[in-house]
Design brief:
Strand 5 (159-163), helix 7 (170-178) and strand 6 (187-191) form a beta-alpha-beta unit. Helix 6 (139-150) crosses helix 10 (271-289). The protein contains ten helices and eleven strands. The protein is of the alpha/beta class and 292 residues long. The chain has a six-stranded parallel β-sheet with strand order 1-11-8-7-5-6. It has a three-stranded parallel β-sheet with strand order 3-2-4, covered by helices on one side. Strands 9-10 form a two-stranded antiparallel ribbon. The protein is globular, with a radius of gyration of 19 Å. The protein has two domains: 24-114, Rossmann fold, CATH 3.40.50; 139-273, NAD(P)-binding Rossmann-like Domain (Rossmann fold, 3-Layer(aba) Sandwich).
């Protein structure tokens, strides 16, 4: 079994981005500037945003972190989004999800300038993805595609089953892998909570991607011998043996599935680092889309 090492591949991408930043500096061009808006004190969101800021520092991007407590009114957040849209020094920004229940996430997402939407969630960018026009691809699905490409995983004509149909991962990834591109040209099945005979459906997959947020959901009996298995799930589960009291768990029962899979991504260290790498790639791409 070959380990799909997202940590190593994301580091390769960061090194490539470092070189691009040095080149821009040498040419006297603008350095990419990423801003992140964090609302509340959700531990996973705080860690994720902190990792994004660290990645910017490592690559040489400029970064800005804007924080609000979880009682911030929706109109204040919308006003900040508009200010970031108009700030010429900011090339791309994200509003970290999830948001508190009193804030309409869709309204916030739609308020972001599509040319600064480096998370790739704006409907215009999703539409561009469908018809293969220039724009930003959602960071996590794009990270999965980078893993597939850099691990030289064959996709053309392969049966791909994706478990989970979220707008952030499963739905866009199903479209991306079904397009006439490379990676792509898969025969894609998008499985979900209403799928009948799920284990049987999964056993037909040459490439099985789990993105449902249920630790250990994919077991050995759901995997075809020699399949490529990519685990997108990252759930915090209690673990008294750890100093922080928790650990990250994936959707795949790693130990048992590793006995059947030809390639398998771990959690942590698989898709997670690639999401941040994709966000950095999108931030650099923002410069090209604006002609900077």
């Amino acid at each position: 079994m070959i380990l799909i090492d997202g940590k190593r591949i994301s580091q390769e991408i960061k090194e490539e981005l470092k070189g691009a930043v040095l080149q821009r500096k040498a040419e006297g061009r603008k350095i990419p500037h990423l801003a992140a808006v964090l609302v509340g004190n959700d531990g996973a969101s705080m860690t994720y945003v902190s990792n994004k800021v660290k990645a910017c520092e490592e690559i040489g991007f400029e970064s800005t972190l804007i924080r609000y407590d979880d009682s911030v009114p929706e109109e204040i957040l919308l006003a900040k989004v508009q200010a970031l849209n108009e700030d010429r020094s900011i090339d791309g920004f994200i509003v970290q999800l999830p948001l508190p229940k009193h804030i309409d996430e869709l309204k916030i997402t739609q308020a972001i300038d599509p040319l600064k939407d480096v998370d790739g969630f704006h409907p215009r960018n999703l539409g561009n993805m469908v018809v293969n026009l220039p724009g930003f691809l959602p960071a996590t699905p794009a990270g999965v595609l980078e893993l597939i490409q850099r691990m030289d995983i064959a996709t053309e004509g392969k049966n791909c089953v994706i478990i989970g149909r979220s707008n952030i991962v499963g739905m866009p990834l199903s479209i991306m892998l079904g397009r006439n591109t490379k990676p792509g040209n898969c025969t894609v099945t998008l499985a979900h909570s209403k799928t009948e005979n799920l284990a049987e459906v999964c056993r037909n997959a040459d490439i099985l991607i789990a993105a449902i947020g249920q630790p250990g959901f994919v077991t050995q009996d759901m995997v075809k011998e020699g399949a490529v298995v990519i685990d997108v799930g990252t759930t915090r589960v209690e673990d008294p043996s750890r100093m922080k009291g928790w650990r990250l768990a994936g959707d795949v029962a790693f130990d048992e599935v590793s006995k059947k899979a030809s390639m398998l991504s771990p959690v942590p260290g698989g898709v997670g680092p690639m999401t941040i790498a994709s966000l950095m790639l999108n931030t650099l791409k923002a410069m090209d889309l604006k002609g900077k």
